[in-house]
């Protein structure tokens, strides 16, 4: 209908409004109502264009990973009172999309001779206090140097989903996960008896790792063999990392190391919004700060 009214507006000086309305079988009152609302339409269009520009900027700042929920939360955090459906519509119109997750290859190699620790998590990936439950796992970043992968081990705090410890190396021996655990202990303010949960990979069932867990006064926990759901929180983080940095091949391990460090330290921990069931959309670092100021949370 708007196209018909726009045609009448363009041709009214030549043929007259009454004639054009009869010819096109529309009411003159409808045309004049459409004409009266032209200023409002122009204002809405200008507002949509300004909002679309903000959405594109936020999407670019998120490394082209945010979807509708996080862009909407970011706008609300900036003081913009905007409807979520409007954000979704503008993202569709401007072809702005969040990143999509891809499947990844598992590195879990169980040690059949080792006796695994009990499962102290039981698929309960929640924690009310930081430093009481960690989940860990290993992934790899492919490089153009053939089979020379860069391996990345991380420990996430379940109360904040912050990466409190990580290590990168050209191997995935036990020392890799031990180094990541030492970092988590140094910067994660771990409580005595903190649970460190992982899969049953040989790195985590090794004597070296078990000894380190005992020296730090922590508790070891392992999921079942072949069940990714027993360590779903760590698996979810790897899926997110591969989704948001892409599954490309880096030219060498130095480039992959830089990308991994930048993603964890400058984006994921301090910039990426995550919806907390109590505090709402916050970064992992902000969630930790909120816990420190709200002990009862």
TrEMBL record:
Residues 126-292 form the Integrase catalytic domain. Residues 94-120 are annotated as: Disordered. InterPro entries: HTH-like_dom, Integrase_cat-core, RNaseH-like_sf, RNaseH_sf, Transpos_IS3, Transposase_IS3/IS150/IS904. This is IS3 family transposase. Transmembrane segments: none annotated. It holds the Pfam family HTH_21. Involved in the transposition of the insertion sequence. SUPFAM superfamilies: Ribonuclease H-like. PROSITE patterns: INTEGRASE.
